[in-house]
Amino acid sequence: MRVSQGLAWLLVAGLSIPAGAAGKTSTAPGKYTSWGEEDFDELEIVQPFKFADYTGVAVEALDTKEVPPRTDNEKKNVQEAVAAVDEAFLAGLKKGVSSFSKAPVQQGAGSGHALLVKGKVVTLDPGSRGARYGVGMGAGATKAKVTGEVVEADTGKVLLRFTHEKRAGSGFGFAGGNSKKLMLKSAEHVGEDLGKVFKAF
To answer: What 3-state class would DSSP assign to 63?
Structure first.
């Protein structure tokens, strides 16, 4: 009897796991944190939609006015990263969408019944090259944080609002790596994760 009860409990517990996983990628209206397989930081689903109903994805130029200017030896790297962040974010978004769809992703305001991403870069941080080199283990990582919304290009209807940050701590050069390239890699990862969000819809 005890064995049967134990098996029944395990069965119920096992069945509850997929339900929790499904809830993690819920497409019901609401505000979510650590959403989806990529643990997307903050996602607000304003209006459920079907990705396949749209002709593609367009991305407006990112607003970078809130990125704090630097006066130290990272000034040039941050300026150059700001100038190239649109390209990096777009590359990431293309990669994320292409992981599940052949829908086109392009820069611009979008036309027809397309999804339009409007974003603002709130953080583009070069981190600490010394910490990356001397400490490692994620110390001194660069950061890119983007907040924005996804709307219908033709109607302006808001479908999603999002905020997401990614970090990069190695992979470009020696002695802590090139902070400009790492910041852009961080921004690319933000775009990639956003692109993968669409897979659930």
So the answer is: strand
Check: CB of residue 26 under 8 Å from CB of residue 32: yes
Please answer whether residues 58 and 103 qualify as being in contact, where contact means their C-beta atoms are separated by less than 8 angstroms.
no
In angstroms, the CA 149 to CA 58 distance is 12
Residue 6 lies in a domain: no
DSSP state of 31: E
In a domain, 8, yes or no: no
For residue 114, the domain's CATH number is 3.40.50
CA–CA gap between residue 6 and residue 96 (Å, rounded): 43
Instruction: Give how far the C-alpha of residue 112 lies from the chain's centroid of Cα atoms, to the nearest Å.
Output: 25
| Residues 42-58 as b or e (16 or more Cβ within 10 Å = b) | ebbbbeebebeebebbb
Given a cut of 90, whether residue 169 has pLDDT beyond it is no
H-helix segments, the chain: 2-24, 75-98, 129-134, 179-197
- At residue 170 the predicted structure's pLDDT band, cuts being 50, 70 and 90, is low
CA distance 171 to 137: 13
Structural domain containing residue 181: 27-200
Domain count, the chain: 1
The backbone torsions φ and ψ at residue 61, rounded to the nearest 5 degrees and listed phi first, read -60, 135
Cα separation values, 69 from 17, 72, 122, 123, 189, Å: 46, 9, 12, 11, 22
What is the pTM (predicted TM-score) of this model?
0.81
Distances in whole angstroms, Cα of residue 110 to Cα of each of 49, 58, 150, 162: 17, 5, 12, 19
